[in-house]
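Checklist before submission:
- one chain only
- standard amino acids only
- sequence pasted in full

Submission:
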Amino acid sequence: MNVKSAARLSLFLLMAPLLVWLIGLIILPHADMFAISLRERVALRTYEFSFANYAEFFTEPLYWRTFARTAIMSTVATAVTLLISFPVSYYIAKMLRGRLKAFLFLLCLVPFWVSELVRTFGWMILLRESGVFSNLLQWMGLAEGPIEMLYNDATIMVGLVYTSMLFMVVPLVTTLDSLDDAQVEAGYDLGGNAFSVLRTIIIPHAMPGIVSGCIVVFMLTLGNYLTPVLLGGKDSLWFTAQIYTQFITRFNWELGAAFGFLLLGLSSLIVWSGLKLSRQTLTETMG
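Returned file contents:
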């Protein structure tokens, strides 16, 4: 065996676990689910090829309205997460040094030491009618009786931002940490103000971190199930809850599979649009 053949074999052996993971856990299950979404049950254990499941989505207002609502709220949650995370990330990356920097970054990680279910239940304890905030408002004389803060869009938004904030902070801190302080100082020396330096120097440099963070946060938010259902209640109208209902409650795997692929298509479209608008490539964003 010559050197070239040995190199190819080594590359294949290194790539084999990744290929097995991609084919066995991603490509094959998705291909099977897509095939299920294209069949219609006409009798017991009898199916025929059909686009009826996708047609039902567009003809039933509840389905496509829930789909649109999920997309809009996920986009808003991503934008709010970015607005909150950017100054926090800049402060950690550029304003702090040494142990204090590491300590503050560690504080951002602490909530994620427990599962998403536990974090969501924590918000339910704070916001429920007999929770901490309701009792505090009554004690301060700002409320005459118990206040129910759960089961509304604002609460869902708080939960979504809280559960995904770390995934925005990490890429932003990593990107901003590589920004040379001399560039920022040069911007001020040339007569720029805080806004112009932010617009022309800091944001362009941080754009790969912004795009990658937004992609991850949007996809996690769009596919979130626990937070919208627990904080929003049975009337949360979140699309993943519709998918769960079709698969688990109604045993309608055909319609559930169609819903899953519609959600996959939406997330792919938003990611592609974000990359085009920001003039980034996937390689630049993830690299």
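Reviewer check: The mean pLDDT is 86.
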